[in-house]
Input
Amino acid sequence: MKLHHNTKNTKKAQRSNLHPTRHTTATHLRVATKAWLAVVCLTGVLIVRFPAQLSAATIEVSVALGDPVFKPANVSIQPGDTVKWTWGTPGHPHTVTSGVDKPNGLFDSGLHQSPFTFSYTFNSPGTFDYYCETHLAVNMVGQVIVGGGAPTPTPTPAPTAAPSIYLGNIATRLKVEAGDNTLIGGFIVSGPAGSSKKVLIRGLGPTLAKFGVPGVLADPFLELRDGLGALITSNNNWQQGDITQIPESFKTGIDPLESIIVRTLTVGSSGSTGFTAILKGANSETGVALAEVYDVDTTSLATLGNISTRGFVQKDDNVMIGGFIVSGSGQQKLVIRALGPTLGSFGISNPLADPLLELHDGNGATLQTNDNWQDSQAAEIQASGFAPVNASESVILRTLAPGSYTAIVRGVGNTVGVALVEVYTLP
Output
């Protein structure tokens, strides 16, 4: 009897990223063992040897490696394959949670920061959406397609005009300590991939004494870092830099020891790129300081979408005071959060146990307060994707007209500790 040789080809599956600004192709390699298919007639007995079964594969997805996105955001796999998510930038907590805008119970990594990995094996065909619970509002979402096919590409959006309303700046006053208790300000520049935003970052200490603030930071030192923690630039005394880039209004009347950085920042392919400003004492000294981030290019398509500050909250005059400006025309819906206990899960040894959050207008009038986020607006906070993990943390949702506002974070019962105040824009 004639033997027939049949060698299985190596199978490859291409994955395409749904989003045109997040296009990533992952090649999925399966190895099929070469086998002979033989049909032999031996005394009436038919013997058939089949090819070995294909081996399952593991597909890697990064979680916020620099930007708040999954990379690749969309993958196509086969039943039995495993997706492994690896957390990227340290210091920023994320989840991998199955569902579209609320958990559906299939899988959930829990809230973690780098270094951490989470894996899930998909045994059934279908389309499985997932998202990051803490960054759903900035579209940190992904999709796994099991069983072949490819996601329908999202049409490329038409060019848009500069936003009519946006966050203009954030300024946080706090007593700067050493080590983990320096003043750390984070912000995200969002917009079309490749667009840019010119920002001015300022660290003030000695100048505050002119306004009656006691115990100021004698010599502020300012650093600007990218989403991976790499140093972009730094400044000790503002007159040592290129002062021609500094608008006159930002350098008039300030002490030569203050720090200023002016930088044009580019939005990455994901449409959102994170940066961190760190303010500390030039010689490890401590004292009250003011850290500010300003949007100095209002014509750009990019915006300051999310701004936050982490620092050591004390009592009386040394509570955390975060000011921000809503610029433009119309109204902007914002979520403002004060986190304390959650920070303890990420290596902070002295988090603020029970933050109390206050929102004031430009005249100092109290607009809203919150102690525990579930006490009010709980359903709306859950729907926004910004519900904290810990019930003792504080959230305020508010639609604001253009103007100046202040968020104050203090400890309930005059307790002290490290806290994080955040301001996010909502659609």
User: Anything to note?
Assistant: The radius of gyration is 26 Å. The chain is about 5% helix and 45% strand. The first strand starts at residue 11 and ends at 15.
